[in-house]
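Figure 2 data, in text form.
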Amino acid sequence: MMKSVIIQSAEAYHHELKQIFNEIHINSYSEMPVDGFMESADGNSDISNWFASSKNPYRYFVSFTFLEEEKADELLERIKDFNTKIEGISPISAFISAVEKYV
């Protein structure tokens, strides 16, 4: 079954994510740079959030691809393994969604 995979990675880990793609032969994907912001209801920055602070945007990339279920699972396992080896507060996040229909 076809899956849609969306990945958020801090700019610092962008190169490593591309290495993971190459290692498991993911040759087709799209990505875009994004500036993230997070501000609490009282107007103060929530600096505990990995996403960003209100004054200084946090630069990251959103990548997405469509994969067969086995390949999507392998990608998430590789990302999970990578995240266990880093010490930052911004691990790579990935999400899998089912593709019910496509043309």
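Caption note: The longest strand covers residues 58-68.
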